[in-house]
Amino acid sequence: LGTRSSALTRTRTTCGYCGVGCALDVLTRDGEVTAVKPAHDGPVNRGHACVKGRFAHGFLRSPERLTRPLLRRGSRLEPVDWPEALDHVARGMRAAIAEAGPDTVAAISSARATNEENYLIQKFMRTVIGTNNVDNCSRLCHSPSAAGLTAAFGLSGGTDSFDDAEHADCLLVVGANPIEAHPVVGARLLQHVLRGARLVVADPRRVGLAEHADVHLRARPGTNVALFNGLAHVLLDEGLADLDFLRRRATGLAELTALLEDYPPGRVSEITGVPVPDLVAAARLYGRAERPAIIYGLGVTEHLHGTDGVRTLSNLAILRGAVGTGRGYGVNPLRGQNNVQGASDMGALPDLLPGYAAVGDPAARARAERVWGVPVPRTAGLRIPEMFAAARAGDLRVLWVVGEDVCATDPDTNLVVAALEACPLVVCQELFLSETARHADVVLPAASWLEKDGTFVNFDRRFQRVRPALSPPGQARTDFAIVQALAATLGADLGCPTPAAALAECGRVAPVFGGISHQRLDQEGALAWPCPDAGRPGTGKLYLDRFATADGLAHLAALPYLPPGESPDGDYPFILVTGRRWAHYNSGSMTRRTGNLRLDPADRIDVNPADAARHAVRDGDPVTVESRHGRATLNARITDETAPGQLFCAFHFPASRVNALTSGHADTVTSCPEYKVTAVRLSPGGPP
Ligand code: SF4
To answer: Mean of the pLDDT values across residues 216-221?
Structure first.
């Protein structure tokens, strides 16, 4: 007769891969996922999902999942029970604090983790350890968006609900490849273009959307600020600016007008390589549109002057009066990871408390102290690159890395590894024995997004529920449970017994989230912040009355073009740009352990056919790529998607060591690495 299997269970949750935030129905039976279905009533995905969210769940039952804590004994990581692992971590933290002070302990929180987990981690660091040394991987992707959008408009998030993008009559998509990296957004944008919207794509690569663009601006990597200043010059020169809006709601026009004298199309063309007619045509399309939209990605932020890029791109929307007016779809970043917006919203940042309140602001500290009952440290903590530098200098005693494979994803891998090796106690919370976990002293087995309760915030500021479809395997625990247990081992009580209680408490520390609760989300599906009280529906489109800056005005920025950290030369004649491919996700720790591996089995490096011919490289051949920082060997993919003189590759496979190539150059404002411009050379063949 066989064994009768249990009933099918359907769990509504939010995708744990990219920042689009697709609502998914996960079907499980007998503790196994049988199918993942995109939710037809999902507010962002409306019945769609991509190859990652829909099919990449096989990693859950991978035999490589970590199921017990591991403790380093000599050169080996050996299984131990939770009390022994937590005691070891707690002893190390206590000793570091006693001998050298709380600022010798640091934590890298996780964009993969829920809001509630991020809230708890930053609260642990601030109230139990007594330091602001907590950061998250938005440092490496959209920290320039946070700084740039806050300076221009007042809040650290996109200016509109994505629904508004489908009312735009002209889309300006900059430094983003949504067809591969945010596929559901890419599909919705493409559908909108096929319905008649005009499209300008600004990207050095011939990305998927560029096939459908009216104008494709292929500016040289690292020249965004010149490009955006050039577009602004044409807007003003041709009378396409909204002078009434500028008079009433913006500031900085005189300074910007003076600066733009230096950015006529001819000079901008020399800097960027964009032909003058294309530049002018793009400016006219955007400038003459009734409802223009700006959507951008990491091609704007991951630069030495990434924040300047966000500011000068924002200038275009301000000049057109296309932000905060109900007309147009202002300036909207496509956030990379599932909860990178939320990790920052929750205050997992060294200078900002939950809700982006500065740690240097006595009133903000006092509000948090009233809720937490202990003093909040006053001085900003270390950013991620500063943590690594401090470790290499012997100034960091404990580094706690939650759900990030920094050895695979952070730039200049050799320096990251040197930091981990120099730090006396490295604690890593992970699903798998990642490259980073291999360097850890303690490895704590964590739960995945399909095994957790909480919320994520997607790219257009929507809180959505995350619900467990399965239990974690073996002794693996949620990050929420691990932080609680570590606090208890140190004799502290973080409060917040449940994720729902943590979000409720966060709303008291950060009133901007005060109206958002698990209960409301269970009833209403999604709520965009700001949402200060339970009687309000959340805010999709921002700034309709006033901007959130101190003076209530949008701020134009007069910023000159400055060259990138590295430029091609005789020794390193190519520019390497890194990014993502459609089947995999970031370090690939999950997607490589699924059927998606068959779709894309290895990292490849894109080489333009002209460069390939000159170097006698054929499709599939191994090539060696060298920068001033390191060397990697990959197989070539010959394609004119990449311009002559440029190379492109992803970093989904640790074995390819792509980030051994990337440099330590970083945004001068936020320390976001310049992943988009590394000078390299190429030679056929692998290592000798
Ligand atoms: Fe998940 Fe992003 Fe794909 Fe949606 S588009 S299913 S959020 S990876």
So the answer is: 97
Same structural domain, 383 and 493: yes
Tell me how far the alpha carbon of residue 361 lies from the centroid of ligand 1, in angstroms: 37
pLDDT, average across residues 241-267: 98
For the chain, what is the total number of helices (H) and then of strands (E)?
A: 24, 28
CA 485 to chain CA centroid, Å, is 28
The alpha carbon of 24 and the centre of ligand 1 are apart by a number of angstroms equal to: 9
> What residues does ligand 1 touch, defined as CB less than 6 Å away?
15, 17-18, 20-22, 45, 49-50, 52-53, 182-184
CA gyration radius, the chain? 24
185 plus 126 within the same structural domain: no
List CB contacts of 621: < 8 A, sequence separation 6 or more. Answer: 635, 636, 684, 685
Cβ pair 201, 574 in contact under 8 A = no
CA distance 300 to 223: 10
Mutate to test the pocket of ligand 1, among 51, 52, 180, 466 (most ligand atoms within 8 A of CB): 52
Per the listing, tokens 């003003």 go with 236
Buried/exposed 434-449: b ≥16 CB within 10 Å, e otherwise? bbbbebbbbbbbbbbb
Same domain, 121 and 155: no
What is the C-alpha separation between 310 and 431, in angstroms, rounded? 34
Joined together, the tokens standing for residue 296 give 């951008």
Q: Are 60 and 448 in contact (CB under 8 A)?
A: yes
CA neighbor of 20 nearest in space, from 41, 48, 40: 48
Residues 631, 624 contacting (CB under 8 angstroms): yes
Instruction: Examine the predicted complex and report whether its ipTM is higher than 0.85.
Output: yes
Number of domains in the chain: 3
Q: Work out which ligand 1 atom sits closest to the CA atom of 185.
A: 5
Could you please report the per-residue DSSP string of 64-89?
Answer: TS--S-EEEETTEEEE--HHHHHHHH
Question: Full-prediction pTM beyond 0.90?
Answer: yes
Residues 393 and 271 in one domain: no
**Are 324 and 544 contacting, i.e. CB atoms less than 8 angstroms apart?**
yes
Write out pLDDT tens, residues 620-637: 999 999 999 999 999 999
Same domain, 523 and 655: no
Contact 297, 175 (CB under 8 A): yes
Residue 310 lies in a domain: yes
The predicted-structure confidence for 500-533, as pLDDT tens digits, reads as follows 999 999 999 999 999 999 999 999 999 999 999 9
The answer to whether residue 36 is domain-embedded is: no
* Helix, strand, coil content of the chain in percent (nearest 5): 35, 20, 45
Best of 13, 15, 340, 584 for a ligand 1 pocket test (most atoms within 8 Å of beta carbon): 15
209 in any annotated domain: yes
pLDDT band for position 335 (50/70/90)? confident
Instruction: Report DSSP state, residue 654.
Output: G
Residue 520 dihedral angles phi and psi, to the nearest 5°: -65, -40
**pLDDT on residue 471:** 95
18 CA from centroid of ligand 1 (Å): 5
For the packed helices 362-372 and 499-509, what is the interaxial angle rounded to 10 degrees?
Answer: 150
Whether 2 has a pLDDT exceeding 60, the answer reads no
Last residue within a domain, chosen from 334, 368, 396: 334
Q: How far is the CA of 158 from the centre of ligand 1 (A)?
A: 18
Q: Using CA of residue 667, residue 671, residue 672, residue 676, what is the dihedral sign?
A: positive
